[in-house]
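Re: the 317-residue chain
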Amino acid sequence: MVEKSELFIKEYKLGLTIRDIAKKYNTSYESIRKCLKGKVPWRRKYISDFTDEQIKKAVDMFDDGKSVKHIAKWFEISAPAISRLLKANNREPICSARKYDLLRTVPINMKQKQIIVGHILGDGCIYRDGPNSMYKIGVGHKEAHKQYFHWKIAMFDPFINTWRRNVDKRKNSVMLNATTICHPEIKQFANMFYLPNRIKIVPNNLDIFMTPLALAVWIMDDGNLKNKVNMRICTMQFSYDDHLELQSLLKRCFDIRSKIMEFKYKGKKYNQLVLNKRNTQILSDVIRPYVVDCMKYKLMPESSTTKCQASKEDDIV
């Protein structure tokens, strides 16, 4: 790699750009840049050096949706210089801070609110960086469920811009994570779902949001189809009173009946919601249209008539 590094330095001193060198040697832009960093003085470029073709290229890239930062990196010039070039060509570039301010004025639609409710009942969390900051929503799923992860962040568009892949310290799992921008409307859900001490609760005003879509997100997050016929929902983070509210919510909104089952884990007692075969079939049929392919293993097979599908001997909870 030492020989290649010296070769890259020589090419750069001869006048080739980093992008030209990367293309010539079939290497990534970042690899070339790392080799050159600290070993050569960066050449400064100025807008006055641009040809008419380069100016047109920069403007066309902006019109195609590329960011100022992306265009600047492409031409190996500063972002403010590109901003000035675009303004001179009757374009109005938006800086990142201003872009986020504009996004915060975009309302969260009803579909997204339903997804938020299912998400927070399940694996999701709402938090803020400081007492004076606005709230944001964290999204995280293991890589095996990457289709579901990407579906979820797509549903939060335009409030999620990037995502990241994190390897667990023990090297036995890989997580995909994303965070929404801070948005004033998220505060409504933070106040609903969290006590001042950050304990998550189940509010008693979820009926308007508890649609089949919200239920599907909750089950995709926390549902577990035991023996292919009995749904168990991992609600162990909630109190017994919260479980009573969840039971009532399922009954009110979907006529789904459930039991609260106590179990022990590492010496501690927890509760979870369980459904018998009949009610698991009802739930599966309700949420099926909204479940992404990689999560359909949590559903019972589709029934022609839900009530006939269930055994007459099943206990009605």
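The CA atoms of residues 177 and 236 lie 22 Å apart.
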